[in-house]
Model the fold of this input.
Amino acid sequence: MTTPTPPAADLPAPTDPPGPTAPSTRALRVLALCGFLLLAGCLVLTAVLGLVDAVEGDGVGGGFLTAGLWSLALGAAAGTAALAVPRRALVAAQYALAFAAPVLAALD
Done:
């Protein structure tokens, strides 16, 4: 006795193999590790901008400085996720959040 075959609509769609220019998982993990060095540099720059604003400004950290520090924390979380599950979007988010932190701190 044979089992009936499900209709074609119920079958999962075949996945396309990655293209020849797609980065490998190892390359994505290396980029995520380099992103942690970028995050550390952006943390120093954000702290310097916050301290300069505290000395020269009103002495109170504003909302943009806080948003910049949260951006660094979220960038570290995205980098950790990119190490565990290497995805191009996670690495891009890590780099974008790292670059956003000093920009947000400079707006304060």
About this structure: The chain has three helices and no strands. The first helix runs from residue 25 to 56.
